[in-house]
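About this split. The held-out portion is used to measure sequence recovery: a designer receives only the structure tokens and must propose an amino acid at every position. Recovery is the fraction of positions where the proposal matches the reference. Here is one held-out target exactly as it appears in the evaluation file.
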């Protein structure tokens, strides 16, 4: 059965992998981003729609829902930032921008989509993106950890508020090879050292996260809500000593 899924950040590394997988299963997919140029091949596929929008502009979420229409089966909020800096360097603008982009955007996206999600199919599902940095302390991560911690809290609160009609879960990835992490991974030696810090000895791929997101969006996961699920090669929970 075809379902209609809206993906904020749908042109990004992880968002586009979710979109491709959903499209290949015959679903209708709405991708939101500022520009479609990175994913022209995906956007031209049957059943894929692109909506150009900046999630930090006023009124944007209601405008998106006007294009999506009155019914929706699933929503993914995969917009985010990795804004690293010391406490000394980070200022109020960094914290506000990261909070707005990662956490407040997620809340406002759901608010605008709520009526449509309630009119959608039986197994309406929302997937947010938290981070390993909200589960494990890393230096220079104050702003992103704070914003992603807010996403984890939002996941629990909305899962409670919207049960039993709508499920809400979040993924918490560790470093995943996407345009977002490109700069961090530009030096092959540094990228290798970062990969080695994971018990499973590699960095994440967009598909690692996308497979779990697609499962959480599907009717196969109808007894799972309020969970923050790590997709992180064991980084948040294991210390292997090698
Ligand atoms: N990659 C990692 O290592 C990693 C680790 C932990 C958590 N995460 C989280 O996983 C999620 C997906 O990340 P990703 O790695 O796939 O990131 P990505 O490749 O950079 O994709 C980000 C997406 O968000 C869109 N976007 C960014 N700013 C926007 C804005 N102001 N308005 C509308 N759209 C905007 C981008 O499109 P445009 O630029 O065209 O707008 C793009 O579609 C994020 O929440 C991220 O924080 C990622």
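Reference sequence for scoring:
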């Amino acid at each position: 059965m075809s379902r209609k899924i809206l993906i904020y950040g749908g042109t990004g590394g992880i968002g586009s992998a979710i979109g491709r997988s959903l499209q290949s299963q015959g679903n209708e997919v709405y991708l939101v981003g500022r520009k479609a140029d990175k994913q022209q091949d995906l956007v031209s596929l049957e059943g894929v729609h692109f909506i150009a929008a900046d999630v930090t502009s006023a009124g944007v979420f209601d405008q998106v829902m006007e294009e999506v229409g009155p019914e929706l089966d699933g929503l993914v909020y995969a917009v985010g930032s990795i804004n690293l800096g010391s406490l000394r360097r980070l200022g109020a603008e960094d914290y506000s921008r990261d909070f707005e982009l990662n956490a407040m955007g997620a809340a406002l996206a759901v608010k605008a989509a709520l009526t449509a999600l309630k009119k959608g199919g039986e197994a309406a599902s929302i997937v947010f993106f938290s981070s390993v940095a909200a589960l494990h302390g890393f230096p220079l991560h104050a702003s992103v950890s704070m914003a992603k911690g807010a996403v984890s809290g939002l996941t629990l609160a909305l899962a409670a508020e919207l049960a039993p009609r709508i499920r809400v879960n979040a993924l918490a990835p560790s470093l995943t090879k996407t345009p977002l992490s490109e700069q961090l991974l530009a030096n092959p030696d540094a990228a290798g050292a970062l990969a080695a810090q994971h018990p499973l000895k590699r960095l994440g791929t967009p598909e690692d996260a996308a497979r779990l997101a697609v499962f959480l969006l599907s009717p196969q996961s109808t007894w799972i809500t309020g969970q923050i699920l790590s997709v992180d090669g064991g980084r948040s929970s294991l210390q292997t000593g090698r």
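Annotator remark: The domain at 4-231 is CATH 3.40.50.720 (Rossmann fold).
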